[in-house]
Design a protein that fits this description.
The complex is a heterodimer. Chain A is of the alpha+beta class. Chain A is built from 23 helices and 18 strands. The radius of gyration of chain A is 39 Å and the shape is elongated. Chain B folds into two domains: 168 residues, no CATH class; 121 residues, no CATH class. The relative contact order of chain B is 0.13. Classes of the chains: A alpha+beta, B alpha+beta. Chain B: Keywords: Membrane, Transmembrane, Transmembrane helix. Chain A: Keywords: Acyltransferase, Membrane, Transferase, Transmembrane, Transmembrane helix.
Amino acid sequence: MSLLSHFNLGQADNADSAIPAIPSGALLWLIGAFALLLAPQWDRLPWWLIGACAVLAVWRWLAQQGKFRLPGRWLKTGVMLVLVAVYVATVQGRFTVDTAASFFVLAVGLKWLETRTARDFYVLFFILVYLAAVNFLFQQNIVWALLTFAAIGCLLVGLQILNAPALPGNFRAGWRRLGLLLLKTLPIVVLLFVFFPRMAPLWSVPLVSGQARSGISDSMRPGDISNLAQSSERAFRVTFGGSNPDYRDRYWRGLILDYLDGETWRQRDEEPFRRLGRVVTDAGAGPLAENEYDVLMEPTDQRWAFTLENSVAASSNVFPAGEDLFRFDRPADSPIRYRMGLASAPVSNATELSPVQRNRYLQLPRSGNPRARALAEDMAAELEPAELVNELMRRFREQAYYYTLRPPTMPEDGVDALLFDNKRGFCAHYAGASTFLFRAAGIPARIVVGYQGGDPGAGGEYLIVRQYDAHAWVEVWLEGRGWVRVDPTAAIAPSRIESGLREAVEEEGSFLENDFTSLQRYQGFAALQWVGLQLDRINYQWQRWVVGYQGQSQLDLMSRLPGGMGLKELGYITAGIVGLALLIAGIVSGVSLKSGERRDGFGRAMESWRRICQQAGVPVRSGETPMVQAERLALARPAVAESARTFARAVNSHYYRQEPLSQGGEDLQRLKRLLKAIKRQLRHDGQRRSTGPDK
Amino acid sequence: MRQGLIHQWRGWINRRIPRSDHQVFSQKNLFILPTGAGVVFGILLLIMLITGINYQNSLIYLMTFVLGTVFIGAMHQTHRNLSGLSLSITRTGEGVAGDDIPFYLRLTAGKDQAVAIQVSVEDSVIEQLHIPAGSTKDVVLPVPSAHRGYVRPDRIRIETRFPFGLLKAWSWLRPSSAALAYPRPLVAPDAGSLVDDGSEAAAAKPVVGQDNADLRPFREGDLSQRVMWKRFARSGQMVVADWQGEQGSPHWLDFNAFPGADTELRLSYLAWLVADRVQQGARFGLNLPGEIIEPDSGYAHGDRCMRALAAWGEKPPRDQDALPFGTRKSLDASYKGAAE
């Protein structure tokens, strides 16, 4: 270097310091992850919010491309105010999980306009990771779960690009690195998942959504259930320990409606208030007994469980609520799994109806439906209650009553219109009319609402009960026999009870007539059905074994392992696993380093050079160059002077050579030969010295 | 107390990382800690775990475990990114005091590639070095110098946060070689006359130092050191030793040619003169107290003179010195030391 060049060192070449704050690749992955994370919430978020998020993210991207500028402070404030105003206007003061989630998403969307530095990038990264966790609160379906994990992957690849923007082949290498990392850590994840103690919730957290869920409700107007029949959404899935009961016996009782309020059937008593329990989603564990069945119910935001007649609770998350009904501790805001046993004898075989109860089950509005009342009085005058029930069923069976999903509207005196004029209705109509008639005839009666039916899933391992299986039927009180199920639908349309709604309304062609996206609609396409059922099976197993892996199922699994582990032991095991993981990471890096050193011949040569010097009585001083060291060695042991200097020169040329060194190569061989020579010379020299004086 | 801890910590590190121009990074001398983002990430994982517990949500558990093990895996990756890497100083450069002095470094990756490595000393940073497995990369690290003399940062820091920036692994190279900071050249006061004299005096016989001193009576403004006090004691005459170099001999650049100027200023003048002479291709010698460089010409000679100017009166840093030497931080350190 010439002298004068010393004088302009000021402009040392620092060209690569001009890296943009956030590399485009990283930003792209971040935006991608955002999109993936919004997808599972599409039906939960207002459309304008999704649109706004898209616009804001695209704005950020265009700014990155230099086609647009990020907004200044005023514009940014303006955009924020406008969006918040729209939010406030649409939310209208309701506070639910949905509105909270919307606000969260809105905040993330606005953050795009502020993402300028690496620090902002990390802030967004953290928020999006938490958004992924929030997604899992609402969607546990395997497809959405995989999508959410894919989004996490995108985020982690984005981080890699952020940290090494100039690395060539970043995209592929990033995924490969991440994939390898996940693969290596997979055993630990599995162990942790299995062994991490599933503690009880720390505090009670309601997660009630304001969104209306499809499903039966606690009041029934004549048309209600026929609306439900247009939905093929899943209500619940059941696995039986023994064989599946016959189709006609699959009556899933949910709740009882016993109060007729004008045209609407309600529950007389509000559900008794019970302090909200903590989330308990775990069912009883262990294999199903012959007489047990296991229900995995979709969230309903209600507390009722659907059970067969004469069931007893076999898991701790359901409790009997009287009248052969069961309730959860808290509304089912996420998929819930429970287990029931089938009693061999009727459970609630009350022989007496108290006067209060009798009054309750005979309640009718003071007026209305005169023809039905007259018919009831006529029948009651001639017939015993049991005969009257049979007579009515016979009437339904023999006269031209139709079971239809397109009932005519019956505005006033609906029971009369149904029984005498139209004779067309759905289960809710007939159940309501029958109960009315029984009560008018002095027979205590009530409506039971729930589901009837259930189609086998893939392989027939379990039953799928869908919303269109929703059903309403009647129970009457007969002296000496207690509550007896009477289903007018069975009399009018036996195929509904024998094989389901599809068969019952086949002629009418009204099955799922408004639901074009439902797979169930296209019964004719076998392949489509097959795919649908397989997907459902995967999802079912996913929900039972992964999503549903909770306290009780964990303890059950553990009890099958030797050692009888409790929560405490699981805690120890978890700590052990984490410790082990750290240890393995440490050992692996230690070993790979050792092998690296072993491969580094120069390092080894230098090590043995140091040893030789030590033995020769001139220990290597730190920071001393090999040349100086060789001179000192030469001074101490002149016999090896020449080889020591040669060695030092060779080492020097290795370290300070301009071109990259040839790996291994001749240099190394030469160094080794030299070292051997030095050792030999030292040995000879040593012998001569020790023997010298003797001679 | 705090100072004591820092001192102990330093001592511990210095024992682990001996002073050397070559360092291979391994478990012995690598340090790894979460970054700020890493700490936040840990807190986030904790929050997610609590969410999972509270909502009995297996998938949140699963995600927490996946991210947690990714964190542990990243620890290994970040560590491996540096371990096996070697960093050596191939050459120390020269520069002007106050400027950045280049240190020529060579990084050699081990059997793993090293990605997004950052090498820094004080405020000067080289970022984003990628070294494929088994290959080498040469970089120049500018080290800010504080003043003329030897420059040796106590530590050159090597760091990586790859892949996720949640963890940082770092270590140091504690150089044993020092670079030189030349005096900053300043135009010498009577430069004009010197340059004019230059051509005609080129043939003049070289004169060596004090042997040819003239004696003349004391004048107002002469330095008292120049007064021949022995003669004054003998004869009572104030006589001043005035040697030829001081008159601006064109062959000799003389430390003593600038009466009244302070040492660093003189060296700066001389540095300017040396550069000037070299540019003209002139022949010149350098006369420093205690060191004389015989007249010669050419760039190599110029370099030699500059080095002599830079090192004059300075002691090279010793291995044991555990403080930065001649860098800007060293000034801070000494100020702090003075304040306490």
